[in-house]
Amino acid sequence: MGLSVNGVFGHVLEKTRKEVASKSSGGMEIILSSLENTQDLQTTLNILAILNELLTVGGGCRTGVFVSKGGTALLLQLLVGSSKDPPANEELMLHIHSLLVKVGLKDRKLGVKARLNGALNVTLNLVKYNLQNHKLLLPCLQVLRVYSSNLVNAVSLGKSGTLEIMFEIIGPFSKKSTTLVALDTLASLLKSGMNARRAVDRGYLPTLLTIYQDWHRNDTRHRHVVIRKSILGCIKNLTNIKLGRKAFIDANGMRILYNTSTVRKCWIKFHFMCTSIGTCQTNDDIETDINKLRPIQMNTRPFDELRAYEYFFREFSENFELHRPIIIPTTPSSLGPQNRRPPQEDLLTPKPDESPLELDSISISKRPEGTSDPDLVCSLGRLVLDAGVNGGSVDGPQDEGGEQAVLEVPDTAALLPLHDPDLYLEMVKSTRSVPAYTEVGYPDYFGHVALNLREPILERVYGVQRMKIFQDIERLIHPSDILDKVVYDLDNQSCPVTDNGESLKFNSKFESGNLRKAIQVRKFEYDLILNSDINSNHYHQWFYFEVGNMRPGVRYRFNIINCEKSNSQFNYGMQVLMYSVQDAINGSPHWVRTGSDICYYKNHFSRSSIAAGGQKGKSYFTLTFTVTFQHKDDVCYFAYHYPYTYSMLKMHLQKLSALRTAQIYYRQDDLCVTLGGNSCPLLTITAMPGSSSNDPISQFRSRPVVFLSARVHPGETNSSWVMKGTLEYLMSCSPQAQSLRESYIFKIIPMLNPDGVINGNHRCSLSGEDLNRQWQNPNAELHPTIYHAKSLLQYLRATGRTPLVFCDYHGHSRKKNVFMYGCSIKETVWQTNVNTSTCDLHEDLGYRTLPKLLSQMAPAFSLSSCSFVVERSKEATARVVVWREIGVQRSYTMESTLCGCDQGKYKGLQIGTSELEEMGAQFCLALLRLKRFTSRLERHNHNSHLLDMETDLIETRSIPNITSPTTYVLEEDEPAFLEEVDYSAESNDEIDPDLEPDLQDNHAPQTPILTQSSAAKTHLTEIEPDSL
């Protein structure tokens, strides 16, 4: 019976607590009013005890009510008032600070309120005079930690001697409960540059290193890892300033930390996260303005300005009476004088100060597969153009007798019907580059045959990143081991002056090549520095270079040290690509995935504020991989992804035109000339009308238009391979291809950024701008391809032929699979807190049909990775502008992975050119199936299909955090790759699969401290030399 009474009493007590602490009851106001008005110490203590109990049991909600009723200010006033009559009552101070600790978790303005009320020094004095009174010292330190999280407070407290007091509390290894709180307070104080300088000037950095060593030495059972991490946090904050970095080096800090990190065995944990995010309601980038999400209903340009673009739509006026083939590959444009392209002969004719490009001196023979000359690569220099562009000559490969060497090309015609080495060299002649390239890359000349075998995604070796970073740190620990030898430098054509045959030879002076500098740091290790995009000081990611003079069977380590992306699929199983000339001559002309010990991590180089978009202190990242070469004196090429050059596109288009039959309408125009003087091809592909009678011609002219484009970003070479698959399918003789041509008129721009591709850029054109951010207001002079592409679309809309589908092919560097981004008002609003009526969100769900079809047909396509949310940062992209301004409901960006797939038929495999080309062909088949959903005869089936999709949308939207077709996906949303160190002695090799780091966690245990050769420091122009 007694237990029952106690239970009832407890229930009543808890109910009373809830009623008192609720916002509507007024109980909290009564308690605070009593606290404010009482003058009796014991009554004050009793009220504070009640508040402590209420806030301890009630958690955040009750604390929120306490703060909203003015409780914080009242506590601070009581604290300051009680301190005016020393000595202060210890129990009172204990109660007040205990409450302030709880309030600090909820009241973000506590630090500001404390400063305004004069409470900072009150708490500081309590700490100063109670260093041995741990009962009172602990809550005072906790409050001081909250105070110091405010930068202004931290500076004020530093001036008042708080740093010195903290070092009196922090000391060698002990079991005092106040040590951790004091370290956390010190770390907050040291985030202030002024406090950091004060600490360095007073010699506290060596003191911290000594304290860390003592804790590390005594904490053999790893029970105080949190304290050791806090000490390291203090050291890290000190090294954020230049003076602190110097003091760290002078105190031998690198060696101390290196020794303490390697002397004890640690177990490495890997934590992988999902690649999609269930909800993103906190994303401020999502467009919330309904007016900006609605299509513009008026033409943005007068039709008189657009009339010139009739020239590119001659199929709508052709009468087909003569049934002559449609062959207009390079007809001059009829645009205005400022945009008129020069005649073809003018484009190919060298300027007066240029010498004609001749390749006649290169003799080519074809050797049957399986046979080769083992000394051929040794005797062969480089595949070069006979005459330099600006009058300088480049000697071709010669044998010992002075005769021109014979370049033996593997006979791959049967496997590569669209590749012809002779034709490729002809295409190179008219390709204009900024560096005036005089050499040709072997892989582009020989060609690439897709591998028959599958290449699995590389399994990450545990601890590889930790091992690589330690090797980097050893450069400072053992500087005598570092060679510091620049072996390749685009800025110094005479480099290297001497060569003892022990160094690799590098080259990137060919179309799409990118390597600026190579530095030999150890006998078999090289640091590589990439070029930025032309007329830009950033976008270092794409690479394509040649390596020679290697030894077989030796493990060479390559470090690309100025990458910019904060994460990469190289951390998730992607490998670099390598092409061996020796293998190609032996009958295996393949780009193959290669490399071991691959990882991608932040290094110690800081980008300048100009290179980092105004943000000072952003770091570069290192991509490191190890390669063992198989052949002596081979010539190998490395690339970020399968290269696809502009000259290769021209060759492919010429070969495709030869596939035209009497049933195929194929026309190639030059849309415009780029800043670099290169033409931008525009293709028109459809089926010829059945006859010249009115009915077939009327059917021909009424076909819906499909507008496709690709390669606006040069580094996304996979988009060109997908486009190649699309073009080959459209020009094929299969019944499905013919049916597809009879269903649509295709307008295709296969390469929107020829200049960027030619010059080895990663993202920009020669104007130094991202062309896919210029669609809202493109400039005819600076962004000619975008300006004229948009004009074509505007012309189609003005003439009542708005495209049924627009799709821009892209590549994605940080996600797997192939997927689409589209545009939807409804799905955009659903990701925000905007309140709109149902009628405001009415839209046809037809934009989902094509992705749905692709998910059913294409094994690499992932519907769950698709997103139809419109973001503010994407409002100037092709997808959004074409959707909003041109009125194309099915306006997409199709993203193809650079890595591989994690679902479907290709799960666990890296993607290759055959899979990419297959994706392009499957896109065509999906368009063919789309036809029946958009035909009038089957409109009722289409409507029922849309109802099914809307039901799916509503169901998935009601389930929080579900990975579904409506899941909003960030553009680059792979998680930060962590190698978390487990110090538990009992862990052995057991890996915890459940712990997943937060996607946006900026406190990941990075190890950015990395030493570097002086040569790299000198020549990384965007890197601040004083950064460590």
Describe the structure.
This protein is α+β, with helices and mostly antiparallel strands and 1028 residues long. 38% of the residues lie in helices and 13% in strands. It is built from 37 helices and 22 strands. The protein has a seven-stranded mixed β-sheet with strand order 15-16-18-17-19-21-20, sandwiched between helices. Strands 4-6-7-9-13-12 form a six-stranded mixed β-sheet. Helix 14 (204-218) packs antiparallel against helix 15 (225-238). It is globular. Mean pLDDT is 79; it is low at 1-13, 265-282, 322-381, 387-405, 937-942, 954-975 and 977-1028. Its EC number is 3.4.17.24. Residues 982-999 have a biased composition (Acidic residues). Keywords: Carboxypeptidase, Cytoplasm, Hydrolase, Metal-binding, Metalloprotease, Mitochondrion, Nucleus, Protease, Zinc. Belongs to the peptidase M14 family. It comes from Cyprinus carpio.
Instruction: Give the end-to-end Cα distance, rounded to a whole number of Å.
Output: 71 Å
Q: Unreliable stretches, pLDDT < 50, 5 or more residues?
A: 1-13, 265-282, 322-381, 387-405, 937-942, 954-975, 977-1028
Number of helices: 37
Rg over CA atoms: 34 Å
In one word, what is the shape? globular
> Would you count the extended β strands for me?
22
What structural class do helix, strand and pairing data support?
Answer: alpha+beta
Strand content: 5-15%
Mean pLDDT: 79
Share of helix, binned: 25-40%
Oligomer: single chain
Strand order of the largest sheet: 15-16-18-17-19-21-20
Please describe the biggest sheet, giving its number of strands, its sense, and whether it closes into a barrel: 7 strands, mixed
GO molecular function: metallocarboxypeptidase activity; zinc ion binding
InterPro entries: ARM-like, ARM-type_fold, CBPC1/4, Cytosolic_carboxypeptidase, Pepdidase_M14_N, Peptidase_M14
GO biological process, one term: proteolysis
Cofactor: Zn(2+)
